[in-house]
């Protein structure tokens, strides 16, 4: 088994709405010697959202009656709750300080991914929504890099999520292009010849979580990571492959 190497892409400036994200990533990759076919680029969700202008100024938000109701329970700003509801398919759990929802993209997370950290200077009431279509964003980055460098790389857009029954956040894939989000290992044999019956590997999440060790959660300033040496069969995929269908979700 060959080693897997992670390269932090440094020197990417603060991203603003309308910035050419592919160009910024390409410049950072060029400083690292450029990508190779089979590499995977993991990009932090925040810089994708920022480039796509997914900012919301809370002073411009009018809370709905539902937002006011949930704000009473959670103790959160009703304007923030309203923004969360914009991206919510269903509110699943509510208690003081917490709102868990099914995002309109299918996955379950806190606050519909709406975030304040690393978004704006302290005191400015601005929040950031997830990209409108992270799979599309990943595909556009992959296609843009292929045009610039002439090589095929996989792209994962990573966000930090909590998990049921476990403490702490980890990196998960919310957008995938050019590699399998989910690998089906059923039919493979283990060391003793046993044929695997149920094993599926969340490759997109594994890649996102590994890269998050370098992306960090606070002031690291590393918004993208290049991964080299990963073995996979390239194919077009989406992060929706990782979402468990409601019929098989035993925890709702």
TrEMBL record:
Annotated GO MF terms: coenzyme F420-0:L-glutamate ligase activity; GTP binding; metal ion binding
Presence of keyword DNA-binding: no
Keywords, alphabetical: GTP-binding, Ligase, Magnesium, Manganese, Metal-binding, Nucleotide-binding, Potassium
Methyltransferase keyword on record: no
Pfam families, per the entry: F420_ligase
Signal peptide coordinates: none
Segments forming domain Coenzyme F420:L-glutamate ligase-like: 12-229
PANTHER family named in the record: COENZYME F420:L-GLUTAMATE LIGASE (PTHR47917:SF1), PTHR47917
UniProt protein name: Coenzyme F420-0 gamma-glutamyl ligase
């Amino acid at each position: 088994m060959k080693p897997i190497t992670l390269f932090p892409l440094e020197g990417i400036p603060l991203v603003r709405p309308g910035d050419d994200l592919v160009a910024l990533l390409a410049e950072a990759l060029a400083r690292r010697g450029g990508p190779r076919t089979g590499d995977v680029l993991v990009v932090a969700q925040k810089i994708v959202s920022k480039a796509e202008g997914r900012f919301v100024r809370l002073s411009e938000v009018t809370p709905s009656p539902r937002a006011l109701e949930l704000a009473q329970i959670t103790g959160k700003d009703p304007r923030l709750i309203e923004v969360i509801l914009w991206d919510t398919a269903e509110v699943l759990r509510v208690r003081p300080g917490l709102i868990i929802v099914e995002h309109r993209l299918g996955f379950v997370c806190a606050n519909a991914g709406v975030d304040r950290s690393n978004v704006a200077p302290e005191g400015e009431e601005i929040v950031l929504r997830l990209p409108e279509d992270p799979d599309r964003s990943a595909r556009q980055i992959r296609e843009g890099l292929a045009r610039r460098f002439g090589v095929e790389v996989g792209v994962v857009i990573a966000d930090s999520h909590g998990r049921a029954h476990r403490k702490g956040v980890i990196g998960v894939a919310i957008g995938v292009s050019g590699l399998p989000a989910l690998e089906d290992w059923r039919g493979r044999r283990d060391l003793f010849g046993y044929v695997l019956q149920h094993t599926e590997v969340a490759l997109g999440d594994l890649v996102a979580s590994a890269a998050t060790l370098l992306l960090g959660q606070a002031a690291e300033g590393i918004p993208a990571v290049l991964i080299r040496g990963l073995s996979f069969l390239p194919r077009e995929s989406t992060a929706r492959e990782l979402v468990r269908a409601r019929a098989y979700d035993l925890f709702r």
